[in-house]
């Protein structure tokens, strides 16, 4: 996060900055809610970083102390409907481990 924008890290990045509310990552960041998208082509404003991706899950990383969004964990898959409730629960647990085991700069 820099100046209220998500900053893309090492990977295939469609945008280096994503405004809150834009695309799946921006919606997850602005709402603070995990986004499970079975078909990214049906998601309004989807930002395509890989044309072969069909589904996506994005988990916001929210500060335990301040409640601020620190970033998101974003995973794409080439299959449609690749992510379900078990993936949501598992990835949210991964984010909790990250929050409790990393030193975050706010």
From TrEMBL:
Record InterPro entries: GAF, GAF-like_dom_sf, Phosphatase_reg/MetRdx
UniProt domain GAF: residue ranges: 12-95
Gene3D superfamilies, sorted: 3.30.450.40
One example GO MF annotation: L-methionine-(R)-S-oxide reductase activity
One GO CC annotation: cytosol
PANTHER family cross-referenced by the UniProt entry: FREE METHIONINE-R-SULFOXIDE REDUCTASE (PTHR21021:SF15), GAF/PUTATIVE CYTOSKELETAL PROTEIN (PTHR21021)
Family named by the database record: Belongs to the free Met sulfoxide reductase family.
Name of protein: Free methionine-R-sulfoxide reductase
Organism, scientific name: Orchesella cincta
